Amino acid sequence: MVSQKEIHVLRLRKEEYDRNPTIPEFICSIHSGISAILNAWCCTDMESFGEALAHTVMLIMDMSECLQIDLEQAIEKRHLINQGRPYRDEDNGGM
């Protein structure tokens, strides 16, 4: 898998921005990506769905690198928390 550092370096090299975006700018880009995912799903275009999903994840990885957050470590930590949670069914708010 491509690292968040590789994604960030490529975006800088391709001059997608001349400075690190602000948090609101990143969030707006991620929101736009989420909208593209939903649009592809509504159009039942699974190829575009996968591409939009990947693009959005890459935006999140880029933001993590800019903020010096080790996303892989954060995901592993969160996964451990989720593993320790009790099962919740639909009657008590589970999905």
Report a brief summary of the structure.
By secondary structure, the protein is mainly alpha-helical. It has four helices and no strands.
According to CATH, what is the topology? Helix Hairpins
Which percent range fits the helix content?
55-70%
The first-level CATH class name: Mainly Alpha
Q: What is the CA–CA distance across the termini? A: 29 Å
Query: CATH H level: which superfamily?
Result: MazG-like
What would you say this structure looks like, in words?
With 95 residues, the chain is mainly α. The chain has one domain: Helix Hairpins (Orthogonal Bundle), CATH 1.10.287.1080. It has 4 helices and no strands. The protein has helices spanning 4-13, 23-42, 46-66, 71-83. The radius of gyration is 16 Å and the shape is globular. The mean pLDDT is 91.
